[in-house]
Design a protein that fits this description.
By secondary structure, this protein is mainly alpha-helical. The chain starts with 20 loop residues before the first helix and ends in a 10-residue tail after the last helix.
Length: 248
């Protein structure tokens, strides 16, 4: 949606149990708080970038370059940020290190990984002037955001894979691999939306971004739109109340 993946996101809210039964609750639990920002994945052999792109989960990685840029506008708002240091020289290596570490250790808890990451920081830091005591928190921030990204997409994939062929918009010519990018796109887009409203402007903006987000999906926007909207409102239904004030 061409919005900053962090500064455009709404604040955290308590998690609900919507989106239909256990599957929806699992999506909410994966998100953790509705809605922490999630990033994009680089998936597949050709390195397609998407909130979205189809690819086997083992081949998908959170995009470290995109994450490092996303943190640029957010870093100064974090309590650990120290203005005597430079973002590009000092903090960017920490955010990249945290993102890449999570990519390589997707099933490892932070508590088990921390000592190893501390030992590796001197080699990974490059020209960064941050000692471990100052690098630890931005590294943890990047780790947590990447972890949330993986868990959110995984929960979304599992939930919609069980239901996509029961939807009114489903067309039997297409498989789940065609619909999956649309569900991920809608989930990602809602997480970045500041006002949370699906309206004509939102729809036009999402239509413009679909060609980049679709990856290998065969769906044109006319076929993808309702799946994108379904996922958008799927996130919405996890939120308490009617955040987008549309009565749904």
């Amino acid at each position: 949606m061409n919005r900053d993946p962090i500064s455009g996101a709404p604040g955290s809210h308590p998690v609900g149990t919507g989106v239909g039964g256990v599957g929806g609750a699992a999506v909410g639990a994966a998100i953790g708080s509705v809605f922490g920002p999630i990033g994009t994945l680089v998936g597949g052999a050709i390195g397609t970038v998407a909130g979205a792109a189809v690819g086997h989960s083992a081949a998908e990685r959170v995009d470290p370059t995109g994450e490092t840029e996303a943190w640029r506008s957010e870093a100064t708002t974090r309590p650990y940020y120290d203005g005597q240091y430079d973002y590009d020289r000092d903090y960017a290596p920490a955010y990249r290190y945290g993102t890449e570490a999570r990519n390589e250790n997707r099933n490892e808890a932070w508590g088990r990984a921390e000592s190893r990451l501390q030992s590796g920081w001197e080699k990974a830091k490059g020209e960064s002037r941050l000692a471990w005591d100052k690098a630890r928190e931005p590294i943890r921030d990047a780790w947590d955001r990447s972890d949330r990204t993986y868990r959110t997409y995984d929960a979304s994939d599992r939930y919609y894979e069980q239901r996509f062929n029961q939807a009114d918009y489903y067309k039997p010519d297409y498989s789940f691999d065609d619909y999956k990018p649309a569900y991920r796109y809608g989930t990602y887009a809602r997480s970045q939306s500041a006002n949370g409203q699906w309206d004509d402007n939102t729809e036009r903006e999402l239509e413009r971004g679909w060609e980049s987000a679709r990856g290998t999906s065969r769906l044109a926007w006319t076929d993808a739109k309702e799946a994108v909207r379904d996922a958008w409102h799927g996130v919405e239904r996890i939120m308490p109340g009617d955040a987008d004030r549309d009565g749904r």
